[in-house]
Write a structure and sequence with these properties.
Layout: H1 3-10, H2 14-33, E1 37-38, H3 44-56, E2 64-66, E3 76-79, E4 92-98, H4 107-116, E5 124-129, E6 133-139, H5 140-149, E7 152-153, E8 156-157, E9 159-163, E10 175-182, H6 187-194, H7 199-207, E11 211-213, E12 216-217, E13 230-233, E14 237-247, E15 253-260
Antiparallel strand pairs: 1-3, 2-3, 4-6, 4-9, 5-6, 7-8, 10-15, 11-12, 11-13, 13-14, 14-15
Helix pairs in contact: 2-3, 6-7
């Protein structure tokens, strides 16, 4: 199957097709020139689309994800030649931005400030905000510019310095664990548990196009889920099906869901 036909089949829309075409070019560059190559930062949804493309291309060992620290949400895909086994070490830079007024800045403040400096979203990885600082993961190509010129976010002064990846401090993730039984692992049933709403309300959210499963839009209430699936509902937040247990005498299934607070 030629490149154009495969992209048409895999991509969900024109914007995603352009992205996947660029990812294909990165993979092809690594293959032809036998040198490492990496994509810009990708959202979880974009990462899922990239995986679909690589599987469709028949690439089993497509590349590694790296976002600057273990567990990063926004990641680059690193395509490596046979002689290299680790991601490109200096492709992601972490800047620690300290400020004096506690809790003065939010994720939105930092993102807005960076975009105001002319950065694109694809050059910015995770933004990890703490009460008096934030660790910002960025592409190496923009690091020097930020170290030199970035000194404030809004009216709040910043002290910006580069840190090693091992020094990154992800904030503690706040979750609420919910345990219940469901008649099946249907999407609407698990959503009902995860967000403490009626099954009817859950079904309505799915049918209205507000729900994503593993960052992919889903409007099928009868979609069956498995352990590890991440569910996002616009207006409600995000939860994850962390465990599927045994079955009760009445045939109901024990599940555990973590809701992100």
């Amino acid at each position: 199957m030629d490149k154009r036909t495969l992209l048409d089949r895999v991509a969900s829309d024109g914007e995603e097709r352009i992205l996947l075409g660029r990812i294909w070019d990165k993979y092809d560059r690594c293959l032809r020139r036998n040198i490492p190559a990496c994509t810009p930062f990708l959202s979880p949804k974009e990462q899922q689309a990239a995986v679909r493309l690589l599987h469709a291309m028949g690439v089993e060992d497509g590349g590694g994800l790296w976002g600057g620290y273990p567990g990063a949400e926004r990641c680059q895909i690193h395509f490596l030649p046979e002689w290299q086994t680790e991601p490109i070490a200096d492709a992601v830079v972490c800047l620690r931005c300290s400020f004096y007024e506690e809790n003065a800045l939010s994720h939105r403040d930092f993102l807005g400030s960076l975009m105001g400096l002319g950065l694109t979203r694809e050059s910015i990885g995770d933004i990890l905000v703490s009460p008096d600082s934030a660790d910002i993961l960025i592409s190496a190509s923009v690091a020097e510019h930020l170290e030199r010129d970035w000194n404030s976010a809004g009216r709040t002064a910043l002290q910006v310095r580069r840190i090693a990846s091992g020094e990154v401090r992800p904030p503690a993730r706040q979750v609420k664990e919910l345990r219940d039984t469901v008649s099946s692992l249907r999407l609407d049933s698990v959503l009902s548990v995860g967000f403490s709403v009626s099954r009817g309300k859950a079904a309505e959210a799915v049918e209205s196009g507000r729900v994503q499963v593993n960052w992919e839009d889903c409007q099928k209430n009868d979609r069956l889920l498995g352990e590890g699936d991440v569910l996002t509902v616009r207006g409600l937040g995000k939860c994850r099906l962390t465990a599927v247990g045994g079955v009760t005498k009445k045939g109901r299934i024990f599940i555990t869901v973590e809701r992100y607070l």
